[in-house]
Amino acid sequence: MRVLFASLASVGHTYPLIPLAIAARDAGHEVHFAVGEEVHAPLAANGLRPFRPADSFYEVYAEDLEPELARLRPDLVVHGWGVPGAAVAAHRAGIPGLWHGFGRLFPDGIGLELPTGNAGAPGRPHLDICPPSLQDEDFVATQERIELRPVRYSAPAALPDRVGRGDSRPLIYLTLGTAFGTPELFTTAIKGLATLDAHVVVATGRVRPEQVGDVPDNVTVDSWVSQADLLPHVDVVVHHGGSGTTLGALTVGAPQLILPQGADQFANAAALSAAGAALCLPPEEVSADAIADHTRKLLPRTGDTGHRDAARAIAEEIARMPSPDEVARRLPDYAERA
Fold it and tell me: What is the predicted pLDDT for the residue at 336?
């Protein structure tokens, strides 16, 4: 079977689709990936045949994909939530399609079109990587969902030297994603976290490491770390609330301090706080002292075990969800239903 994946050209939207695309490739399906060139490198490295449809660099519209559908004639299109145009193009061409989520259903008004009840591509099932206990209740009640275990994926990168080298102190991971970090927020967070008896690994993303200034000896700063490889070593994750980091931390049962900045991050923070797996500091409450105090509550030995227990319970829920390999083997059946 020939399967075409399509997503927005960003880490947060493309990386969640990669585990299933790899599993589909390993199951013997011919896989192609329509997306802007920003994320072609990891796709090509995994043999997923990336290409840029028409003149699209970030978003993919129906008219961008229609000639590619005629050229490739795929049997199934797996389209990310961020590219409703791909769903519309597949529907117009009579090709079965599946939505692929990137986390909890995002709220209306954040600049993305909700992928539910779309008039141009009605009734398509959703590959849902959000554990059911955290998913939007109305979405669960009204949409056809195919559960799919979220699997961490990161482009390869060496871990910081101190990680996994016998340091007995807890490990805190600080990231603000690839789109929302600022030097000011990083500086504030590092100032607070550095006061704790812990080692702090910071991934600055779009912020250059030198912009955060000199850091204490217990802080390691890099522009990029392999989050998928780092998370199993981490005790607490301090981050912006992006879906990828949120789910990645949950897969390893790590409690989280969320500093939401925009997009779907406030909704993610609210859901995790309600589940007991995270604490949240809204922008107006952020300070170095507040970040230190809240993180201390999450650390082993000094913190409340309830947050860690709640995170581990969700990790167990995630582990019970069908793996990408299981779902990939059933793609021909889903194509008949879609």
Answer: 79
- The token pair at 5 is 């994946």
Domains of the chain, CATH where assigned: 2-150+321-337 (3.40.50.2000), 171-319 (3.40.50.2000)
CA–CA dist 148, 131 (Å, integer) = 9
DSSP code for 97: E
Q: What share of the chain is helix, strand, coil (3-state, %, to 5)?
A: 40, 15, 45
Task: Output 270-274 pairs: Cβ under 8 A, ≥24 positions apart.
Answer: 271/104, 271/134, 272/134, 272/246
Copy the structure tokens of residue 15.
């990386």
pLDDT band at 6 (very low <50, low <70, confident <90, very high): very high
CA 291/CA 56 separation, integer angstroms: 40
**Secondary structure E strands in the chain:** 2-6, 30-34, 50-51, 76-80, 97-100, 126-128, 145-147, 171-175, 199-203, 219-222, 236-239, 256-258, 278-280
Confidence of residue 162 (pLDDT cuts 50, 70, 90): confident
Look at residue 196 in the predicted model and tell me its pLDDT: 97
Helices and strands (H, E) in the chain, number of each type? 14, 13
Distance in angstroms (rounded) separating the CA atoms of residues 21 and 6? 10
**What's the confidence (pLDDT) of residue 123?**
83
Whether 21 and 31 have beta carbons less than 8 Å apart is answered as yes
Q: Are 54 and 63 in contact (CB under 8 A)?
A: yes
Give the DSSP H/E element, type plus range, for residue 70. Answer: helix 62-72
Alpha carbon distances (Å) from 136 to 34, 106, 121, 270: 28, 9, 21, 12
- pTM check: above 0.90: yes
Q: Could you tell me how far CA 6 lies from the centroid of its own chain?
A: 16
